[in-house]
Amino acid sequence: MAQTINYEKNSILLVDDEKANLMYLNHILGTDYTIYMARGAVEAIERANELSPDLILLDIIMPDIDGYEVLASLKESETTKDIPVIYITGLCDYEDEVKGLNLGAEDYITKPFHDVIVKLRVRNQIKIVNQMRIIERFSMIDQLTDIANRRSFDQQIYKEWRSAIRMKSALSLLMVDVDNFKNYNDTYGHQQGDIALRTIADVLKRNIFRPTDFVARWGGEEFAVLLPSTDLNNASAIAENLRSSIENSTIPEAPTTLTVSIGLNSQTPSQNDSLDVFISKADLALYTAKNGGRNRVCIVP
Q1: What CA–CA distance (Å, rounded) separates 10 from 87?
Q2: How far apart are CA 140 and CA 153, in angstroms?
Q3: Is 221 marked active-site?
Q4: In what order do the strands lie in the sheet with 171-178?
Q5: pLDDT of residue 4
Q6: How many angstroms separate the CA atoms of 24 and 43, rounded?
Q7: For residues 34-38, average pLDDT
Q8: Distance of alpha carbon 118 from alpha carbon 126, whole angstroms
């Protein structure tokens, strides 16, 4: 059966200094999309950064700053540079069209508006946005275990690290490694090894309860669990529960169980701290757990 992917309504930011134009575009598009509006350049940039809409319809001729400058500003910002922009213009010169497209606009709509043209040009851009979102999602998922992959983890830990600094909150990281996995593969075969990794990934997911907690496959037989706003004591309890749950889980199609070693680091980071060092210390704790006999949780000293 084909997978069905459901989306909430895509969002569009309409930017025009003429209220009548905004109302008319809202009338055309409001049924199919979530609509936001801005009456000027400064408001447009602020709302784009705040709302991260899926598409921006941007008027070129505005009294404070023209749409070309707004478009250039949007493309220079990390927050808004990837938002597609269709510029709206009453200008019909070839040079005006080239200027907007050279600045990074995806398309343009001319005034006076024609309902069908507006809907089709918007629909085409939104379709591209949604297709790219599907591609992005699959590029962030580990295909074997159906949890986040290393690329996804790298993005998530960077975001949570910055948030922890800003909020002055604790961040904990568990590095989880399957014990004696090479021997398991040699004994039962690689297909059974894949089943074992999927089972462990599922146990990790089922025993992580908050939406902000994050489980990823780090690589090979190693996993990472990210616990925002979690201090050392709580992270230790979670780590021990994960270790015990995996030890007591049955691996399908094999008359055996597996254990894991877990390295834990917890920190309330500041601007001067290093994310790489934070991760390295969790790795060091994992190394200590492996050398200390496996099937245990070790904490960074």
Answers
A1: 18
A2: 8
A3: yes
A4: 214-219, 222-228, 171-178, 260-267, 297-299
A5: 37
A6: 19
A7: 96
A8: 12
- Report the mean per-residue pLDDT for the chain: 92
d(CA 251, CA 240): 19
Measured distance CA(209)–CA(230) in Å, rounded: 13
Give the span between the Cα atoms of 273 and 278, in whole angstroms: 8
DSSP 3-state assignment of 37? Answer: strand
Tokens linked to 130: 């949604």
Contact 248, 209 (CB under 8 A): no
**Secondary structure element (H or E) that encloses residue 158, with its range:** helix 150-167
Phi/psi-derived region of residue 58, left when phi > 0, alpha when psi is between -120 and 50, beta in every other case? beta
Q: What is the pLDDT of residues 137-181, one digit of tens each?
A: 888 999 999 999 999 999 999 999 999 999 999 999 999 999 999
Residue from 8, 78, 160, 221 carrying the catalytic annotation: 221
Helix axes 94-102, 67-76, angle to 10 degrees: 20
Rounded CA separation 142/197 (Å): 11
Angle between helices 181-188 and 190-206 (to 10 degrees): 130
Could you give the CA distance from residue 226 to residue 199 in angstroms, rounded to a whole number?
19
Cis preceding linkage at 112, omega within 30: yes
**3-state secondary structure (DSSP) of residue 229:** coil
Coil vs helix vs strand at 17: coil
Token code pair at residue 196: 């074992």
